[in-house]
Design brief:
It is a single chain. The protein is α+β, with helices and mostly antiparallel strands and 304 residues long. It has eleven helices and nine strands. It has a single domain, classed as Beta-lactamase (3-Layer(aba) Sandwich). Strands 2-1-9-8-7 form a five-stranded antiparallel beta sheet, sandwiched between helices.
Length: 304
């Protein structure tokens, strides 16, 4: 049975989404004409949006009115790539509150290297590892967090699948905490399921704050670690808020993003997109035009 965000949580999300984040919405509005990308991406009809969007699966959701503004293959199982890390962060937060420290073990580094790789024997706070996970999309951080939180990576993955079931993400299955596994290997989600997971993350202020952080620098001994948020639309597209990106050669681009204008948030999920930035711009442009004009829902606009 589909589960909807409760009104108190929804209102908290709407009112607090970017409070205290340092996001300057007025400045973003002043630069609005620059952030709407090309005029060819400024669409005013669902037909135009459907023609321009290239993602295999896409979902644009209006949480205020609980309605889907754009849908394509909502329940098609596809690889989530690094949007997997949303579930990893959620579980780590629930079990640790982002408190404590992790000593990096050799098995934590046996993965595709990060831009700022962890060193065996290094002690890193859980909070910093979650920053690595969500801002830098670091795969070694995912392994270190999974192992230290549940005792082993397989045990943590089991918890990920159990949590997905609890959230109503019934067509989601994880086999790793970082998202490198392909659909053929058994790692999958759907746009509808990923939206549920993303909403659960957005209801955690500490995780929201991390997702809207553009750059973070930490020091471990003599090592200075600087991470830049992979969300290229952050600070460039008006109202852009928390988001998690993903990409592998098999999954192509994946994206879970929240954007808010004039107090009205929209949530977007993209799976298997050749260009998530273009698809996201098209759909957010379309969605906010619908909200601004208060256009009556088309026949295809339905509750989630």
């Amino acid at each position: 049975m589909a589960r909807r965000t409760s009104l108190p949580l929804l209102l908290a999300f709407v009112s607090a989404l970017w409070l205290g984040s340092g996001a300057d919405l007025s400045a973003a509005s002043r630069h609005h004409r620059h952030t709407r990308a090309h005029s060819s991406l400024d669409v005013d009809s669902e037909w135009e949006a459907d023609r321009l969007v290239e993602a295999t699966s896409a979902l644009l959701y209006d949480p205020i009115h609980n309605r889907v503004l754009f849908a394509r293959n909502l329940d098609a199982p596809l690889a989530p790539a690094s949007t997997t890390k949303l579930m990893t962060a959620l579980l780590v937060y629930e079990q640790t509150g982002l408190r404590g420290f992790v000593t990096v073990l050799p098995q934590d580094t046996a993965v595709e290297p990060s831009h700022v790789p962890l060193r065996v024997g290094q002690q890193v706070s859980v909070a910093e590892l979650v920053q690595d996970l969500l801002i830098g999309s670091c795969n070694d951080a995912a392994l270190a967090l999974a192992r230290s939180t549940a005792g082993s990576v397989p045990a943590f993955v089991h918890q990920m699948n159990r949590k997905a079931w609890e959230l109503g993400a019934l067509h989601t299955h994880f086999i790793d905490p970082h998202g490198l596994a392909s659909y053929q290997e058994g790692q999958m989600t759907t746009a509808r399921d990923l939206l549920r997971i993303f909403q659960a993350v957005l209801n955690v202020p500490a995780l929201r704050q991390i997702l809207i952080t553009r750059t973070v620098a930490t020091r471990s001994g003599s090592q200075l670690r600087i991470l830049h948020n992979h969300n290229r639309l952050l600070g460039k597209y008006a109202g852009m808020g928390p988001a998690k990106t993903g990409w592998t050669s098999a999954a192509r681009h994946t994206y879970a993003a929240a954007c808010q204008r004039d107090g009205h948030p929209l949530l977007l999920i993209l799976l298997h997109s050749p260009d998530k930035w273009r698809d996201a711009t098209v759909l957010f442009n379309y969605g906010f035009r619908q909200v601004k004009e208060s256009a009556p829902p088309s026949s295809s606009v339905q509750p989630l």
